[in-house]
Input
Amino acid sequence: MTDPMTEPYLSPSPHPSRRSTLRATGVGALLLGSVLTGCRSAVSASSYRAEDDSGPRRGGTVSVAINSDFTPSLLFSQSSQPLQNRLLFNTLTRFDDALKPHPELATSWTYAKDGRSITLRLRNDVTYHDGRRFTADDVIFAVRNLQDPQHAAQLRATAAAITGFEKRGDHELVLKLAHPVTNLFDLFEFMIIPDRHTVAQAVTGKTLNGTGPFRLKKWSPGSSLSLTRNDRYFRPGRPYLDAVELRVIPQAEALISSLRSGQSQLSFQVPGKSIRTVRDNPDLVVTTYDTGAGASYLGVNTTIAPFDDKTVRQALAWSVDRERILKQSLGGYGLASAAPWPKSSPAYTEANRTHYTYDPAKARRLLKSAGHSRLTAPLLHLNSPESTAIAEAVQYDLQQAGVRVTLQPTDPATAQKKLISQDMPALWTMDHGFAQVQPATLAVSAYPFNEAKNTSKYRSEHYTKVVREAWTAAGAGTARQHALEQRVSDVLLDEAFIIDLVVQGSVQVASSKLRGATLNKFLYLNLDDAYLV
Amino acid sequence: MTALTPTTGAAPGAAPTARKAPARRHPYLAALRTPRGLTGLALVALIVLGGLLAPLLSGHDPTAQSGLGLAAPGTNGHPLGTDDLGRDLLSRVLYGIRTDLGVIALAVPLGALLGCLFALLAAAHPVADTAVQRVFDLILAFPGLILALAVTAVLGPGRLPVILVIALAEIPVFGRQLRGGILVQREREYVVAARVGGTSRSRALVRHILPNAADPLVVQLALSLTVAVFLEGAMSFLGVGVRPPEPTLGSVLNQSMPYLADAPQFAAGPLLAVTALVLGLSLVADALNREIRR
Output
């Protein structure tokens, strides 16, 4: 039997003419579908069998397929490809699934009773890739680095709440706060600790000197980020892997093919609609994370009439069929929700999730009560197939309620710029993060929600007040804290300047040969304990 | 005198018959009557009629979504099934053809017209010729898709940018073609004779040169339509073409990509339509070319 992957199917003519070229083009178009369709069986037939796991073993290279390149200038914000952050660097602490912090570079900590300072004890056995010892000065620099507005770090407000530093030797540090904050450990989870001497080169991608398990070997812009094992890593015997390569494969189909053919062993960027094409592959394992790091939403510019009217915005919230968007546009991977919170969030409640359901009749009534029967508005969306599918579904639902929407496909870089600079049209759809950690972080950090300056240009003393109270209240996890967080939810749901659609989890597609890969809450990939069987 | 000029082939004493040589059919018509031309014409007609009669052939609104999601052919009165948003696939393909035809039928003649005007300008004066050639070089330096991305980066996606990109890409193609024809024709004896007889330069160009230089343009027109189909499809495929939810063959094909393995009928419709259209136009162009060269 002929191997379908090597069988020649288009032999070049010895005398190619225009006619034969055109015919070949036509035939080629016909064959495209069948060839692409055939790839699946071809690859499956020649793929390996999963071996028994006999425990961790040293060696091997893991290739991670990513759909967008590492952007060093955005190293300290959450706007870029974040997978490499925990491979090259470390954070002070790491959350478990219940948002309980665990030691990483900080071995222990003590909060002051008034919540206005925290004492950190740091590891004394950590060195940077270049051999320099990690000290408390590096933590001070990391905090100040995030306070720098030029990095546009979303957790800058939390970093800015740290107003004083008291060093007690090289490995103990007191952080003094202007006021208590409930999301300090979100900052510790988010904030990578760079080498203060080479940070200028880090944001250009020339040098990425961290304390993480892998060191930079080579960055080929637009192609790959090659990392090699850090022999000085503070965890004895870790990492198991010799090398990691992040390969940029923008096209979803090509990315999936690289996973199916074994060229890549790991990806978090297989679109939800395509998961079913790899779900039944015995050589691949699909794992979902409830990080909620990419909730899809419909944003509303509250300075453009008639969307400055809360009733109109609420009508939009009742117009959209979230379950249909989840099923048809996202392949069912996620949680249809009117609120931004994933199930793991302390602010999650079923009442919040179902605050708005699909009710076009109610939407029309609300629009009528606000004095509108037909509205027109532009809707910006990313020009990727997934975002276009969401935008088209929203467009259709809004049209049923009497809101005629013109789609504005936009490239991601321009959309991000507009998001940050608050230059959005009346409506837009994108994804937001920061709902997966302490609820206050969303409202003080994420561009669409930030109480001080958000993309919707929504301003309200009440919103600022409830956000500040939830952010600065002492005693995370208490009933009072939950009540304050619910007040934030109430404002978000009532004002509807951000209309959440679907809270998406992260979906990991990995080779069955790869074990031990995990993500932190900000989608930093952790391969400390990963190995190949 | 008549006795010295016998009628060829006529029996002696028979009444002379004025037999005319059969009039040669116009080469374009002759080309379309060849098997190649007929096949091409049939394929093009099939697709064009499909697009024109879209409202009659499909009773579904191509933008109407439903809860069906991706459905198999024959489900709930959808002959080709529905796409991932529950829209009727047959109507999206038919209306997609209509959109594509609307774009290329406007863009290619526009490009051809502008290209011909530039060629005439180039033929008028050597300095103008040099300037026009450099403009053509500049446009040709950008591959079609790069040109498309550059234009949409400025204008944003939409129908107008697609028309502009295709027209822009075709200007040097037609311009160079016509300019070459003019340069060849104006050295011919009949043109020289006309000029010696007092015909002005512009009259010679319009009355004598242009009609004889135009034949290759007809072939080029058919070829350019195929290129335009590809370019429009590629732009829609990349998400910089006609804005959704208006269907185009390229955008439907793009949406089908995640489902190639499970629902090949999703991609089959637009693929077959593009293939038939391109193949048909290529065959027509080939038939015209052969007939004109005879």
